[in-house]
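A reminder before we start the practical. When you read a complex entry, don't treat the lines as separate problems. The point of joint prediction is that each chain is placed relative to the others, so the output describes one connected object in space. Small molecules and nucleic acid strands, if listed, are placed in the same frame. In the example below there are two entries. Take a minute to note the order of the lines before looking further.
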Amino acid sequence: MNQTTPPTRPATLGLACLARVFWRSLAIQTAWNPAGMQNLGLAHALWPAFEALYPDAAARREALRRHLTPFNTHPYLAAAIVGGVLHLEERVARGEMPASRVDTFKSLLMGPLAALGDGFFWRSLRPAFGALAILLAFGLGIVGVLIALALYNAVHLSLRLRLFDAGYRHGEGVLDIIARWRFDKRRDATRRLSAAFVGAFAALVSLAPPAFFCAPGKGLPVPESSPSPVVSTALAWLVGLLALTAARANASPKAPSATAILVSAGAIAFYVGLLL
Amino acid sequence: MPPAVALLCTALLAGFWAIERKAFLQAMLSRPVVVGACLGLVWGTPCLGIAIGCALELFFLGEVNIGAALPGNDLWASLAALTFASGLNAAAPETWRPSALFALAVTLGVLFARLGRRADSLQERRCVRLCKQSMDAACRVPTARLFLAGCAPPALMSMAVVALTFGLGLGAGHLGGHFWTHALPRFSADLVPRLARASDLTALAMTLAAAAIALSALDVARARLTAAIAALLATAIFVATRGLFIWSAT
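Here is the predicted structure of the whole assembly.
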């Protein structure tokens, strides 16, 4: 195996090397492909560490071969695996551990972390960011969008850094630490918060549509004979509720796609508007 | 900003966003609401940019990239919508009602999202060869080559989307603007205000439909009830402090 490192060399990684690996791990999904998934990104991220740990070219190549096997997890939580791999590779390079432990670690963690990350980040925190951003954009314009971005990335970047750090410090123990953060408990509350933001946005956009859609003095004049805003808002809500009913059936296989729902909602509203 | 400079800015931003969206960072910088707000500023239509960005953000709120299942390309949708609307505006300024621009742009955007998914899938399959080469030889892919294979194609494709939709917008804008101001009033005096009214209603209805799609994609118990309570609460607050939330200065 890879126990060819000369005993004179202390196989630990410096801070600069760790920083380089972390920086490169942000690009773990580069060249994502159906055959190896994130393997090219992972190998690219780990390369500076291999250069430091394995001065022998053959050992370095062997380490690279181990990490070119198919790999896929959530891009944020991948930081924990990358950190953990560094922890284990240091020990492998020192000859304290068989190299197969690294493979086992990766293949054991990537599935659960992918499920956790998809459920929490992609399906809960990201919608919450989006819903908050539209609400703030409605009130404050681009400043609101920047506030939402800052909030999201304060959580996202600090978590990625902490996951990397926890992985590097604890190696195989990182799963217990992640489990202690209770992502699963916060999931439903975050989603319900997004629903509340969406509801509030829908109400506000109906109450103040002129400011939102028609900058004063632009475009064709509003017709004198148009129905009262209450009537047209009520009609728009009717179309929206229709869309809600159609989207509810989205779970069944023969349900209309989101694109079809949106486009037909627009077409119905346009036709009704012409008839008024 | 002159249209040529704005177009160049949009193309450069599009390249950056295409890389940020999947390959690097994923800090939500390429979400529709951010893209909409930024391009709105670039093209001098901040109000329209945010309106389109919000509607598309709601539309894509629940779409996720899990494993090999690809979602619609939200970036292509936002780019297509914003540059198309800007093309229409640049061809015939002051002719197009913002709500009409909104409705046309969002419709084109969601169609481009489907094209974008195809392009994403093609790009992923293109990278298989690089992966196989690297695995067979057990050698690393140098950073420059990884960038060329993984980042350059999405960036160039999104730039092409910008160019294409701007051209489409310019063409449609010239044709439509001409028809709008010269042919239509002669055809029927009544039709112009009717069309204006219809596009206002369409814009609001499409935003609400997008909100409905977002709600059903959230996948949590009592999402609709929570949204309804929040909507009532927001209405109450709005009525109580009337005008506080109207963001455009009156």
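Discuss with your neighbour: The CA atoms of residues 170 and 176 of chain A lie 10 Å apart. What might explain this?
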